[in-house]
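Report of the visiting student (M.T.), summer placement. My assignment was to run the structure pipeline on a short list of targets and document each run. The first record concerns Outer membrane protein beta-barrel domain-containing protein.
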Amino acid sequence: MKKYLLLGPLLALAAPVAAQQIEIQARAGVGLSRFGGPDARSTSFVNRTDTPDLDYTNSPYGSRWGAGVSLGGRVERVGAGNGLLAFDLGYEWLQSRTNITALSISYPLYSSYRAGPYEADGSTAMQTHNLTTFLGIGHRFGAGKLSIDALAGPEAAYVFGFREKGSGTYNGSTSWSTDLDHRAFNRFDARLRADATVWYQRLGLNASYSHGLLNYQSGLLGASPKVYARVLRLGLAYRLR
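After the run finished, the structure tokens were exported:
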């Protein structure tokens, strides 16, 4: 009789554990990126020097969306009551855009020569590589073949490989281009992320938005421009198990 009396509480304790399941997911899609903050610019101008490899955009941290690539893997625990706890690792190649409206020429190394500004067109992209980790807490809505996972939480990013790349024309039809590495004053970023996936069986449609909190140019001497990452991801997800 005592065995049966003990069996009831043990089954009650085991039920929530049995209700939990671990899922492994993979995702891939488009990463849309831009910079926000008071010093992110939708337009800028190009400075041309006597060394073409050193031509540069005056303000390459663009506030216009640019398209890149986003890849990731996720471990997600589905608990009792459909509560979710997820850990996501990702890699992203991102780029923001700045439209170019003018170009100036100066040869400061050996001359006081100045020319322009000339009217110009084209655009510059600030390209970055990002390694991200995301810890999300949320809930699964629905059940069966169709369900929705909603998550929110902190994201940490290591940002490297800063590169400015642009092209266009000025003064009618003369071409210009920039292609140079940038020194990163802040390689780490802390972000807040909202994430949603609509599932049909094992296939999902994923969307997420990350709002950067750390200034990418906080270490710049003689000035304090403020630019912050904004990242929107759209893609597909698949449950591996």
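Residues 1-18 have pLDDT under 50 and may be disordered. The longest strand covers residues 146-170. I thank the supervising group for their guidance throughout the placement.
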